[in-house]
Amino acid sequence: MTDFILKQQSFAKNDIPTRLHQLAENLSQIKNLCVEGSHQELILNLAKESRYFIEWTVPDMVLLDIDQAAELVDLGRVLTRWLFNWEKIWFDSTEKSKAIQQAEDWFERVLEISQIQSQSITA
Q: What residue ranges define each of the domains in the chain, with the CATH number in brackets?
């Protein structure tokens, strides 16, 4: 549990754009690993970690932009659905393709939100 708390504290020290970049990086890795069809356990761990990243970021975003914070909550729901249905996703090519596309779409959106947040910091 101590490692978990240290990871949370270290993550929370970053500004919101940096946190969002870390989340985007996880989504990119998930997509790439799904395309390769390998490292199923790593994908699940990245999805779990990404949900924590969202949990640790959204409260700080609510005061800045509630709509963007809500989008991240929606991403958390997507990740949760993946975790609960992973066996079906992994072995069904249509579902896996859908998850790959979702990961790509969310990767791009999280980067957009990060840029917006970064501009609001420098403004």
A: 16-122 (1.20.120)
